[in-house]
Prior knowledge:
The protein is an alpha+beta fold and 202 residues long. The protein is 25% helix and 40% strand. The chain has 2 domains: 1-31, no CATH class; 33-196, Immunoglobulin-like. It has 5 helices and 13 strands. Strands 7, 8, 9, 10, 12 and 13 form a 6-stranded antiparallel sheet that branches. Strands 3-4-5-6-11 form a 5-stranded antiparallel sheet. The protein has a two-stranded antiparallel sheet with strand order 1-2. It is globular and about 45 Å long. The relative contact order is 0.19.
Amino acid sequence: MSEGRVRNGPGRTHVGNVPCLLLAMSLWMSAAGATETSRDAETGLESWQADTHGIQVRLTQISPDQARAFYQARGFTPEQAEDYASRCVFMTVVRNIGTLPIEHRLSDWRYVVGDGPPRTLRGKAEWDAVWVRRGVAEAARIAFDWAQFPSTQTFHAGDWNQGMTTYPLPRGSRFNLIVNWHAGDAERRTTLENVRCADETP
């Protein structure tokens, strides 16, 4: 087992276990909200997750073909479904892993590309206005609404929810997602870093 020397006070050392130190650092980073990434071995789709201040936020890529198939099966024409699938689409999950209620508003979230300015996300109301102009049938619009991440919600301890969020970026683009919320009276923020839009074919 690998070992190293760790300083313990002025002029004093003891033998420390390097893997244990690395584990402690990893746990600290997780507690501090560092972004964890993973890839599904079967689909090749990637996920990004941060756990901090009693909240867990997770983004998982939805492939363009998955988005097209999902909405065509719910009454969208191929052209209408492509309006959605042409964007970066993610399954978005939020969990309250703490004890205080979490107050969420999607309008407070921002995504940032490179050194560019923070951008807002399109919520349910904005999408519905688009679908009305595009002539999407009411039943299909209702199904769409149910599949999107909530615009507002209060998460009590143990509560969670999921839904789709979109980002008008080219395939393979990378961005940071800034999630703002309230826990009790405190304003909180965490960032999912270096999130990547799905390619046309995973």
